[in-house]
Description:
Layout: H1 11-19, H2 44-58, H3 63-72, H4 85-97
Amino acid sequence: MTEMLYKPEPAIDEHVDLYEVDKARVACSGEDPELFFPIGETTPTARQTISEAKAICMGCVVVEKCREYALQRPEDYGIWGGMTESERKAERRRRKSA
Ligand code: SF4
């Protein structure tokens, strides 16, 4: 099992300030923050958690801003804008090579 060395604060409060939207409009508001910070990505439990978090993100009014925010900073952990840690790393590599 992969151990989480750093657990960020739940993204929800930060999102509210960041995107200047009412907390009620951010789709992860009221959701369990643990859903957005699964341990690892490959276990059946992690895959299920990721799937649930992504589904929530896809219904969020700030999904694109959230994804880009996480891509533009060293946000290594968690699901942001429907994108996992490994997906962000791959996207950063893709952008560097473009
Ligand atoms: S895109 Fe996902 S993580 Fe970002 S604010 Fe919306 S629900 Fe939360």
